[in-house]
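Morning run. Coffee first, then this:
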Amino acid sequence: MEDRLMTAKQLASYLNVAERTVLKLAQDGALPGFRVGNQWRFRKAMVDTWLDDQRIGIMPRYVTPTRNESSARMLTLAGCFDASHIVPTLASKTKPSVIVELAAHAQKLGLVRDETWFVGALLQRENVMPSAMGNGLAFLHTLRRNPEQMNKPFMVLGRSMEGIDFDALDGNPVHLFFVLGLKYDELYLPWLAKLVQMLAQADVVQSLLKAPDASNIYDVLANAERSLGPALAAGG
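And here it is:
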């Protein structure tokens, strides 16, 4: 279904909840929408992004997502990332320049086919809903996977010791920017959820900020992946 505006009744049907639930969530500010006169309207792309963020634990779960995830597969860290994918000291100082710098790094590594497209696609997602979840972390990705633009599933990581204003949920600067080019929906949500779990472990974020170079940053993430247990670490 293409991006479009939906009424509260249409959205309730899409989410498989009561219309009054949609209206209450919108009025409480939990569900992204806007008023046209005395009627609520909801943009589908924004709602889908909101659902994804609930699914991976970036924001509280208010409704049970109805999309089928039975085909979900897991990626290992080594399957989409290595030390060369890391920019340990970002030169950028603003949100747009961070996106440009990391997209350029992905292009330099031959991970994306069109740097200009990738910058635009990342900015498009940011315009729908910021990717910074708080705790100094941002998870940048495109709204749609666009497999023809990705040479393979990948992640790149940029680090800013000073921190950059990235419209984070907690209002604080972001220090670690994870850019995901995971190519297919069935890779994206499981891997992003796993990454959130890795970074939620005690001291992982601080260890990433203290690591002296790209190799050590990679080792911190690899250790965090192994700490999740054999099944998740192996991609099962």
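The two ends are 30 Å apart (CA to CA). Good start to the day.
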